[in-house]
Design goal:
mainly alpha, two-stranded antiparallel ribbon, about 5% strand, globular
Length: about 270
């Protein structure tokens, strides 16, 4: 591990603890929104490298509205997401009408909508988790966010170290040649252990099997999220989504494993626990 990567990891960990436990919910929402804006911009920039003239700034604008709407509880429909999906789709078609040519219209609109859903909507569930609190149930949003980050990110760490020192069999070489079966199993074990030892962060009266299920589920989904971003980068022929974080790449490189774990963890807590 490079020195810059280690320093960035330590500083990011301290920053995360600050925004979770010290700063108020509005500041947490602002930080999440800024991360979404940066990650969306990186995603759209990657897609542009393929020669697709999508709607980068409009997509980033709509993507920024989604997390803010969650915090301010703006719900024009019972499921506010439906409103923004319809509004974004309609607006993209109207923007396409103003162009002088119709080539790649479907690709441009689809890629913009996909970026909004994949980055903004999925990551916005971390704000829903932060706001999901009920003291009578021992349910605290800050603890849920910490649990999610510990299980997901320790899975990343486990996969990195086990893969580095023991990896021999490629997992999906056409997508990410450096990822190994051994690393994937190591990451999964780290996630399960993290969930078991962090079970005190979950609501009261949670039976023993729930942390194990969550560890397995989030461990698998975290690696799927990481591979999914690798697939996008491989298609765009780039190594990292950006260079904003020394030794780690871009914001999208940091949050990729959370894009699937955040919404699934929210649904698990909301409807099963």
């Amino acid at each position: 591990m490079s020195i810059s990567r280690l320093i960035s990891g330590v500083l990011l960990s301290l920053f995360v603890m600050l925004i979770i436990f010290v700063l108020p919910n509005w500041a947490f929402a602002v930080v999440a929104t800024v991360l979404i804006i940066l990650a969306l911009y990186e995603f759209f920039t990657l897609v542009e490298k393929k020669g697709i003239a999508l709607y980068k700034y409009f997509g980033t604008f709509i993507g920024a509205l989604i997390p803010l709407s969650i915090y301010f509880k703006f719900e024009p429909t019972k499921g506010w997401e439906l409103f923004f999906i319809v509004a974004a789709c309609l607006s993209l078609f109207l923007l396409q009408f103003t162009r002088h040519e119709s080539s790649q219209a479907i690709v441009a609109i689809s890629a913009t909508l996909f970026g909004i859903l994949y980055v903004s909507w999925f990551f916005s569930f971390i704000i829903k988790l932060k706001l999901l609190s009920d003291a009578s149930l021992g349910l605290y949003g800050a603890s849920l966010v910490l649990f999610l980050l510990l299980v997901t990110k320790l899975g990343d760490v486990g996969a990195y170290f086990v893969g580095t020192y023991f990896g021999k069999h490629s997992l999906v070489p056409r997508i990410s040649p450096k990822k190994s079966v051994e690393g994937a199993l190591g990451g999964l074990i780290f996630s399960i252990l993290a969930a078991y030892f962090a079970k005190a962060l979950l609501p009261l009266k949670v039976t023993a099997y729930h942390p194990l299920i969550l560890g397995f589920l989030l461990g698998v989904l975290g690696q799927v999220g990481d591979l999914s971003e690798s697939l996008v980068k491989r298609d765009c022929q780039v190594k990292d989504s950006g260079t904003i974080i020394p030794g780690m790449g871009g914001v999208l490189d940091i949050i990729d494993s959370l894009l699937f774990t955040a919404p699934i963890f929210y649904f698990y807590i909301r409807f099963l626990l």
